[in-house]
Specification:
By secondary structure, the protein is mainly alpha-helical. The protein has two domains: about 200 residues, MFS general substrate transporter like domains (Growth Hormone, Chain: A), CATH 1.20.1250.20; about 230 residues, Growth Hormone, Chain: A (Up-down Bundle). It contains 20 helices and six strands.
Length: about 475
């Protein structure tokens, strides 16, 4: 008879590899949906005559949906199952893609972006949970990291497809096919992967965790045997008992459990800090606004979109590097190094934009330019920032939030930290156009200072979670590794 531990040490089976890849595809749509707006920001602003505030709100409105989807996703998946929740998310992605492509005002644009954001929020909680529930223990870290890799791949594909559509139409505002402008096709293209995601979701089994919660132990045992690789009736029975005990533990978690003696647990503050700093460095400004940004300093639209393709490619490479090093060098030191690298990159961007020159009408985006060599320095600095983020704060923040909280409050603490992350994302993305209108030096200076403060935050407060028991990490949350 094969024990649980023996099963865990086995090789990765084809069945679990398939279901994990399907679940991770939700991350691809996550990244695609949030980043596809990049190539359409300028044309949308022109089409609907948007000021800085409305431009920022229309771009970041999807993040309001993300908050809703993140809070609702767990409840929905608990009620209808992980597989059906994936189908719901895929449907939201699909209708949002079509609705956004056919918008006739900024208000229905915001509505459809919120709908898509709900799908993103659902995917952000469903996919990681499903992957964790079907993965063998010794593969869980690497398989879980595939979700982050899928996100950055989706961001890359959004940038690449945006560039292709703009190139074919010779401008994102120009008509492409069937009377629709290129920027509308950017949104419409998401319908294809959304449909694929929905079809793929039909091919995967339900999570054993959900099946146990519904008293369907025989079906759960079959999934544990066929997918997870646990063999033997005794081992299967023990695993099902373990799942049932954990479900009972998490069902009792409430928001008030995060408070001890009337104060929020220190480890929860650390988690919130990680979540907020990950957004306050301005990473999503690069993914949401960079095409418009580079155009504003004199780079042609097609070249600006190509720069975004290169940047998102570097993000993928950096994420792969992060996945490879995380279990070897730990979390805390790479986070600190990442903060330092980001601070340097952002600081150099702020310095570069201080040399921007106004040419002609200052109110015209094309009336601003960066002289040589500051245009090149700004481009290189932006990519240094992305590399620093992609190899550390991108994947490590989510990984640490899953590791650093004790079992008795993990679910609710992770939900609170995630809400702060989405809220910070919304705040930064909404305010960027107004900050940039005031001064790009101010905007990137603020992000640089945030990165620098995050360095001191990591060194003083963030514990090392590599090879440490959860309760030990919680009790020593403020001690240095």
């Amino acid at each position: 008879m094969t024990s649980n531990s023996e099963a865990a040490r086995g090789s990765l089976g084809g069945a679990v590899a398939w279901v994990v890849l399907v679940a991770a595809f939700g991350g691809f749509l996550f990244g695609f949906d949030t980043a596809v707006i990049n190539g359409a920001v300028g044309p949308i602003a022109d089409e609907f005559d948007l000021g800085a505030f409305m431009q920022g709100f229309s771009v970041s409105s999807a993040l309001l949906g993300c908050v809703i989807g993140a809070f609702a996703g767990g409840t929905i998946s608990d009620r209808v199952g992980r597989q059906k929740a994936m189908l719901i998310a895929a449907s939201l992605f699909f209708v949002s893609a079509i609705g956004t492509a056919l918008v006739f005002s900024v208000y229905d644009l915001i509505f459809w972006r919120v709908v898509g954001g709900i799908g993103v929020g659902m995917a952000s909680v469903i996919a990681p949970a499903y992957i964790a529930e079907v993965s063998p223990a010794n593969w869980r870290g690497r398989l879980g990291s595939l979700f982050q890799l899928a996100i950055v791949t989706g961001i890359f594909m959004a940038a690449f497809s945006n560039w292709i559509f703009a190139e074919v139409a010779e401008g994102a505002s120009n008509e492409l096919w069937f009377g629709l402008e290129a920027w509308r096709w950017m949104f419409l293209s998401e319908a294809v992967p959304a449909l694929i995601y929905g079809l793929l979701a039909l091919s995967v089994p339900e999570s054993p965790r959900y099946l146990v919660s519904r008293g369907r132990d025989k079906e759960a045992a079959k999934v544990l045997q066929d997918v997870v690789g646990i063999q033997g009736q005794g081992s299967l029975a023990a695993k099902i008992t373990e799942i049932r005990d954990t479900i009972n533990l998490e069902a009792r978690q409430k928001l008030k459990d995060l408070f001890v003696g009337g104060r929020l647990m220190p480890i929860v503050w650390v988690g919130i800090g990680l979540a907020v700093f990950q957004q306050f460095v301005g990473i999503n400004v690069i993914f949401y606004y960079s095409t418009t940004l580079w155009q504003a300093v004199g780079i042609e639209e097609d070249q600006a979109m190509l720069v975004q393709v290169i940047t998102t490619s570097l993000n993928i490479i950096a994420t792969i590097v992060g996945i490879l090093i995380v279990d070897k060098v730990g979390r805390r030191i790479p986070l600190a190094v990442g903060s330092a690298v980001m601070a340097v990159g952002l600081g150099m961007m702020a310095i570069s934009f201080s040399f921007a020159q106004v040419v002609g009408d200052a109110g015209d985006d094309g009336g601003v330019m960066l002289p040589e060599p500051w245009n090149i320095i700004a481009l290189i600095s932006a990519n240094i920032f992305v590399i620093g983020f992609g190899a550390t704060w991108g994947p490590f923040m989510w990984l640490m939030l899953g590791e650093m909280f004790p079992n008795r409050v993990r679910a609710v603490a992770l939900g609170v930290a995630s809400a702060f992350n989405w809220g910070s994302n919304f705040l930064v993305s909404s305010l960027f156009p107004s900050m940039a209108e005031l001064s790009l030096v101010f905007a990137y200076g603020f992000y640089a200072i945030s990165a620098l403060v995050s360095l001191f935050f990591v060194l003083k407060f963030v514990p090392e979670t590599k090879n440490r028991e959860i309760e030990e990490m919680t009790q020593n949350a403020y001690s240095k590794a």
